[in-house]
């Protein structure tokens, strides 16, 4: 399987998640505003475990999360990618994304998602991808809808109410 280590969008550079990104992810994972819809602030140790688990995912499946930077000044924008996850006992491939708050509202999550879905459907030959968010996260819901995801149902995930979306190729 072809590993997609790096790629670019119109405004962003993406590189495969590595342990060298620990400081940036700690910065993100300890930001209360960013993590309010992502399960809450994480400790340094929880972020190390997050990276370890995502590196293992890359080894097992040949895809995972990427770190995104602004093309102009290489500033850390966020993380996004595809990963296997269990949803109500079913293995699904999820589009996951998180951006630093200063980059919200600029269309960057949609730009990231478009390119990641292209990789998923055209290169990885996935047939469908899911996405879910808290029922209160209207911004993320808009991103999913712009990307073509269709609302399927409500569910409880991590003991919280979520909206579940699916996109089929």
From TrEMBL:
Keyword Transferase appears in the UniProt entry: yes
N-acetyltransferase domain span: 17-169
Domain of life of the organism encoding this protein: Bacteria
UniProt keyword Transferase, yes or no: yes
Keywords on record: Transferase
Any one Gene Ontology molecular-function term assigned to this protein's record: acyltransferase activity, transferring groups other than amino-acyl groups
InterPro entries membership: Acyl_CoA_acyltransferase, GNAT_dom, N-acetyltransferase
Record's protein name: Acetyltransferase
Source organism (scientific name): Nostoc cycadae WK-1
